[in-house]
């Protein structure tokens, strides 16, 4: 049933996406327990979120950023022609992963960071075969740097930014200088403000040092284990399938797949970041997971097989919510 809607583009998928989004927000508000708490030593984020304790407000903020992320995935899918225009599987999968990984008692730093990272990638993809793109490159670099002030783990995307530039465009020193200026400006603004207020100076450099000092094996929750295993299997199958099919029928689609593969590689550092747990890892990988798995599902000719895989994904998400309701304790 779901597969028949998600391969019909925006009009066919909209009602399903809104229904799942609203229903999940209500269920999340009713959840009595959290099964994972993000405890990464992110000084800047922790300072401001310690004053956020209202459950309804936390749920609203989390789902607001899930919704923005879903919108950006949709724009990347359709406007940037990363997948077929009728393919809304990546949007639905990103929505499922976001719903599964946010907790009702804690604002999720990774879901916030994903919005800025996705916006930056959207801006970079928009520069493909375009002229006069210095403003877009500056904007992409600026917001990507801003994301590191929410959670420092997004610094793994800094080298990825320049790899994407090399994939999409021939080398141009002006574009690289503008990008460096975009990365520098948020740091400069923050340091000026911290100097005037005498608050947490040199945060970015201290947080980066802490990030690499706290690299370790992440903790996994048994409630997320079925979803994690299923995502890994589907990702492996989708990459192998893509290698045989050539990763798309246009140059831009093929280059987009290269970007997704590089994103997977650099996300490995997020996998080992201090304080990382099941939900934060899944959200770190949510962008490439959504597109690789979504494109694979769209290419399956048998609707029953696609619906079965979607049913397994939904069942894994339901298991996580059952754990939050304490049904397994």
Structural commentary:
- The chain is mainly α and 329 residues long.
- It has one domain (2-125, 215-324).
- Helix content is 71%, strand content 0%.
- α11 packs antiparallel against α15.
- It starts with a helix and ends in a 5-residue tail after the last helix.
- The mean pLDDT is 83.
**How many strand elements?**
0
Task: Please state the CA-atom Rg, rounded to the nearest Å.
Answer: 20 Å
What gap, in angstroms, lies between the N and C termini? 33 Å
Q: Which percent bin holds the helix content?
A: over 70%
The class by helix and strand makeup works out as mainly alpha
Order of helices and strands: HHHHHHHHHHHHHHH
Mean pLDDT over all positions = 83
Range of strand content: under 5%
> Shape from CA axes?
globular
Provide a concise account of the structure shown:
The protein has 329 residues and is mainly α.
Reconstruct the topology from this structure:
Blueprint: H1 2-6, H2 9-30, H3 43-49, H4 55-78, H5 89-101, H6 109-125, H7 134-147, H8 157-168, H9 173-197, H10 203-213, H11 225-245, H12 251-271, H13 278-284, H14 286-299, H15 303-324
What labels would you give this structure?
single chain, 329 residues, mainly alpha
């Amino acid at each position: 049933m779901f597969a028949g809607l998600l391969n019909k583009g925006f009009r066919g998928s909209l009602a399903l996406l809104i229904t799942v989004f609203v229903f999940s927000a209500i269920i999340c508000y009713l959840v009595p327990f959290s099964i994972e708490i993000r405890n990464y030593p992110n000084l800047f984020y922790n300072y401001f979120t310690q004053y956020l304790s209202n459950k309804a407000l936390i749920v609203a903020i989390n789902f607001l950023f899930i919704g923005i992320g879903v919108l950006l995935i949709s724009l990347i899918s359709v406007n940037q022609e990363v997948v077929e225009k009728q393919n809304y599987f990546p949007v639905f999968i990103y929505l499922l992963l976001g719903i599964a990984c946010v907790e009702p008692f804690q604002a999720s730093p990774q879901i916030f960071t994903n919005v800025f990272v996705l916006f930056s990638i959207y801006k970079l993809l928009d520069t493909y075969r375009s002229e006069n793109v210095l403003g877009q490159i500056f904007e992409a670099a600026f917001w990507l740097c801003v994301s590191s002030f929410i959670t420092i783990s997004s610094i793994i995307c800094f080298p990825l930014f320049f790899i994407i530039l090399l994939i999409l465009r021939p080398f141009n020193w002006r574009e690289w200088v503008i990008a460096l200026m975009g990365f520098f400006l948020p740091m400069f603004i923050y340091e000026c403000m911290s100097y005037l207020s005498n608050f947490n100076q040199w945060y970015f450099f201290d947080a980066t040092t802490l990030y690499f000092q706290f690299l370790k094996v992440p903790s996994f929750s048994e409630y997320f284990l079925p979803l994690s295993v299923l995502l890994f299997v589907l990702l492996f199958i989708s990459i192998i399938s893509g290698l045989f099919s050539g990763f798309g029928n246009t140059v831009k689609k093929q280059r987009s797949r290269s970007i997704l593969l590089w994103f997977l590689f650099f996300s490995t550092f997020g996998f080992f970041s201090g304080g990382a747990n099941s939900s934060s890892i899944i959200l770190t990988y949510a962008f490439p997971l959504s597109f690789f798995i979504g494109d694979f599902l769209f290419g399956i000719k048998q609707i029953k097989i696609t619906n079965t895989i979607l049913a397994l994904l939904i069942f894994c998400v339901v298991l996580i919510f059952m754990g939050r309701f304490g049904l397994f304790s």
